[in-house]
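Side project, low priority. Logging it here so it doesn't get lost.
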Amino acid sequence: MGVRELAAAVDRRPNSVREQLDELATVGMVLRASAPAAGRGRPAYHYLAAPGADRVQGAGTTEDYRSLAAVLADQIARLPGSAEASVSAGKRWGSALAEGRAVADDGAAIDRLIGILREAGFAPDRPDPAGPVELHRCPFDAVARAHPGIVCGVHLGMIRGALTTMGSSIDVERLDPFVTPDTCLAHLASRRPAPRVPPG
């Protein structure tokens, strides 16, 4: 893919993506090749993940981390209060992700939340502005299916922690896992009480 395609895919500016790609190419994590010339000027580059790029020296593969997540989720599921502990851990994660991202209003908070979820790999969408946030990819899919109470609890807490840290009055009411084979739904609602209607 070219820089502009990659920038669009990760919702970043092309110059920022180009800098990151240059660093990855320097350490051998991506391969860079000149694209066919199209018009004047020097040809653009295309980038490809290098074979073995998921293994960094001194670090494990993505599969290693998934295995570790599965072991930890299995152990946590056996502990008393595991559901509450999972949500609490997720809140701390969400707060860290939203640190320094205070927003002016709830609409901006939801936009920022969707950006955070995208960065975390959830492929979020909200086709109906009044509807739930759709999560079309779970970064921990296999572990979440085996231990939904733990992994989905962490994700519920993550959304809640991010919204709270941003100062939003919006909260996540619930997270419905795997309503389709590839979609979870995060239902949002205002923390503000509904206005009282005087009798009569």
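Brief comment: The chain is about 45% helix and 15% strand.
Revisit when time allows.
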